[in-house]
Automatic annotation (TrEMBL):
It is found in: Cell membrane. GO terms for cellular component: plasma membrane. One of its GO terms (biological process) is cellular response to starvation. The chain crosses the membrane at residues 7-26, 32-51, 92-112, 118-139, 160-184, 190-209, 221-239, 254-274, 286-303, 323-344, 365-389, 464-485, 506-528, 540-565, 572-592, 642-663. Keywords: Cell membrane, Membrane, Transmembrane, Transmembrane helix, Transport. It comes from Nonomuraea diastatica. It comes from the Bacteria. This is Carbon starvation protein A. Belongs to the peptide transporter carbon starvation (CstA) (TC 2.A.114) family. PANTHER family: INNER MEMBRANE PEPTIDE TRANSPORTER, PYRUVATE_PROTON SYMPORTER BTST. InterPro entries: CstA, CstA_N. It holds the Pfam family CstA. Residues 32-590 form the CstA N-terminal domain.
Length: 707
């Protein structure tokens, strides 16, 4: 390494270390959010430069001479060599859903420090590693899905358990994400119009890049981003025009439109809609997050939330029940480690990547960016006063419906906010009330509006920024639904293909149409029922979201560890085995508590017993208002408890079966055959990173017809 590089990276390390030191050592006083920014960015830079590079070169052994499935199997539908910049946008947009936005906001109940540590350390050593490793191994296996890789590499028993668990969890995750989108866009003509316009813009970009001006990525980007910004501004015009009623949709109507869009996005060729739309939305996502970071650097707000709150140790917080371990690692479902990402890494992305070395930028780099989203989310939550935070995120049963009752309830929690301050906060964003606006999304929007108004327009524009943030959250989450549906189709085709081979051809039109319809119908049913019944549909399964997602990560890390061991890389297996051990400890502990805890606010079966006892005595317990709702809560708690236990058992079966394979390899001292595709020479020349190096530019210039 040259002296210049040593100086630069030493400075980066010192900035990150200084940020962590201030965050860790400050006690009893407010800390500037700038230190949180420095800690995160410094850590990310070091991790990407050194740790990710080490894994790609030494552990995985990426080989750019080897043709990827996008090149070998290119058919213009699912397999299509895609420019790394477009693919980065697709992958980031597909993995960045509700988790990094709302999970960290809810985790702020326990203070800013535990969530921040997990978000940054978790992504460096677990989340980004999982995404990159699974992307690499799926790419080496013609883009096989996670469940099918488990079956091929672990065995029929563990593979069957993985296929069942992965597909069932996938349907739950998609329905939950779709529900968040519906809740954010319902009765919002601005949001509906702006997001609807991204579809024709993406179609135009897809045809422009493939037919009109092939290869002109920068040119296409400029046009697409300009049209996107126009669509966002026009959304505000539509909201105040006679067109507003046309774009003011009920939750039921939105759910139906979302189901239809999910089917179309899963069926159309990937270059036509999915990839350009995700790439387009990435500019808004990353642009907004970058603006938040700039706003923090300029306004230098302080973190009003303490490093740790009492709820981190008591486990009796009003936002969610459970102690710091294991539930802070569960509630932050995507910002640090997410099983859903492994589905994308073994779904659309490995069928589109041009070169093996690009897994570092697309797999590891995209996950670092999502982690930064989570850091910005927890920062936005923690710059609010704790009184406002708990008034917004505590359920109505705790804070009541009036500013007076909310003020008193928050005071009882140990924080202070007056009725006048609660009313002023609602007026500032032009909302009737901010009391009991649970779920994290409204809190994030208020935090973003305060940061933006601090350097863009002042208090007069806070309401504008609040509603912009709500629309931004909906767009952020929607892109995971379309890609997830396509991935669900791949998984179903792989699963049925074990019995009937023709359907395993992922681009066979009859098969892809039927399996897409099945996947959409599955999550669409739960979504539509949940939209129309506050205790039905996906609302029944919502409490499983966090645990199910992290159990899915255990499957992915198990597959990654198995493939490292089987392919003769036992000495590097710790790269995935250590995060696997941590994830298993967290998720199985959480599963045990959710199933067997005697606390009805935590355990599913104890909650069922509490409501059943009250039902037998003719009593009504909140949130139920009728006997029928009491019976529904009893049923929901029973279903959730059974499924939580079932998912945990399935994951244990996968791990035990994988352990059998590990022991066999270790005892024999030999490698085992894998399902890796044969080597074929690549004819594609493309940079490994976002910016081509001097050597890469020279190589591509020499190979070009004009060179």
């Amino acid at each position: 390494m040259k002296l210049r590089s040593i100086v630069i990276w030493t400075a980066v390390a010192l900035v990150g270390a200084a940020g962590w030191a201030v965050l860790a050592l400050s006690r009893g006083e407010e800390v500037s959010a700038v230190w949180l920014l420095a800690a995160a960015l410094g850590s990310y830079a070091i991790a990407y430069r050194f740790y990710a590079r080490f894994i790609v070169r030494r552990v995985l052994g990426a080989d750019d001479r080897r043709a990827t499935p996008a090149e070998r199997l290119d058919n213009g539908i699912d397999y299509h060599p895609t420019d790394r910049r477009i693919l980065f946008g697709h992958h980031f947009a597909a993995i960045a859903g509700a988790g990094p936005l709302v999970g960290p906001v809810l985790a702020a109940q326990m203070g800013f420090l535990p969530g921040t540590i997990w978000i940054v350390a978790g992504v460096i050593f677990a989340g980004a590693v999982q995404d990159m490793v699974i992307l690499f191994f799926s790419m080496r296996r013609n883009g096989r899905s996670l469940g099918q890789m488990a079956r091929d590499e672990i065995g029929p028993v563990g593979g069957a358990a993985a296929l069942i668990a992965v597909f069932a969890i996938m349907i739950i995750l998609l329905a939950v994400l779709a529900l968040v989108v519906v809740n954010a866009l319902a009765q919002s003509p601005w949001g509906v119009f702006s997001i609807a316009m991204t579809i024709p813009i993406a179609l135009f970009m897809g045809f422009y890049l493939r037919v009109i001006r092939p290869g002109k990525v920068v040119e296409t980007t400029v046009i697409g981003v300009a049209l996107l910004l126009l669509a966002i501004v026009a959304g505000g015009w539509v909201q105040d025009s006679s067109w507003a009623p046309f774009f003011t949709l009920s939750p039921s109507a939105l759910a139906l439109w979302l189901i239809a869009y999910g089917f179309v996005a899963a069926v159309l060729p990937v270059w036509m809609l999915l990839a350009p739309r995700d790439y387009l939305s990435t500019f808004m996502k990353i642009g907004t997050i970058a603006l938040i970071a700039i706003g923090i650097a300029i306004t230098m707000p302080t973190l009003k939330t303490p490093a740790f709150t009492d709820f981190a140790f008591s486990g009796e917080g009003p936002v969610f029940a459970g102690s710091l371990f294991p539930f802070v690692f569960i509630i932050i479902a995507c910002g640090a480690l997410s099983g859903f990402h492994a589905l994308i890494s073994s779904g659309t992305t490995p069928k589109m990547i041009q070169k093996e070395s690009q897994v570092r930028m697309i797999g590891y780099g995209s996950m670092l960016m999502e982690s930064f989203v989570a850091v910005m989310a927890i920062t936005a939550a923690c710059v609010l006063t704790p009184g406002l935070y708990f008034a917004m995120n505590s359920p109505a049963g705790v804070v009541g419906a009036t500013v007076e009752s909310a003020s008193q309830a928050v005071t009882n929690l140990g924080f202070v906010i007056t009725p006048e301050q609660l009313s002023a906060a609602a007026d500032a964003v032009q909302e009737e009330t901010l009391i009991a606006r649970t779920g994290g999304a409204p809190t994030l929007a208020v935090g973003i509006s305060q940061i933006f108004s601090g350097f863009l327009g002042g208090a007069a524009l806070q309401a504008f920024w609040y509603h912009f943030a709500i629309m931004f959250e909906a767009l952020f989450i929607l892109t995971t639904v379309d890609a997830g549906t396509r991935v669900g189709r791949f998984m179903l085709q792989d699963t049925i293909g074990n019995v009937w081979k023709p359907i395993s051809r992922v681009s066979w039109w009859p098969g892809l149409i039927v399996t897409s319809a099945v996947v959409v119908a599955a999550w669409g049913y739960f979504l539509y029922q949940g939209v129309n019944d506050p205790l039905g549909g996906i609302n029944q399964l919502f409490p499983l979201f966090g645990i199910a997602n992290q159990l899915l990560a255990a499957v992915a890390l198990t597959v990654g560890t198995t493939l490292l061991i089987k392919s003769g890389r036992l000495k590097w297996a710790w790269v995935t085995a250590i995060p696997l051990a941590w994830d298993v400890a967290v998720t199985l502990t959480a599963s045990w508590q959710k199933v067997f805890s005697p606390d009805p606010t935590l355990g599913f079966f104890s909650q069922r017993d509490r409501y059943q006892t009250a039902l037998d005595q003719g009593q009504l317990l909140a949130p139920a208002k009728t006997q029928g709702e009491m019976e529904q809560i009893v049923l929901n708690s029973t279903i959730d408890g059974i499924l939580a236990a079932l998912f945990a058992i399935l994951i244990i079966v996968v791990i035990l079966d994988a352990l059998r394979v590990w022991i066999r390899v270790i005892r024999s001292g030999e490698t085992l055959p894998t399902a890796e595709a044969p080597f074929e020479e690549s004819k594609i020349l493309a940079p490994a990173g976002l910016i081509a190096t001097r050597e890469e530019r020279a190589m591509m210039a020499k190979a070009s017809p004009d060179g």
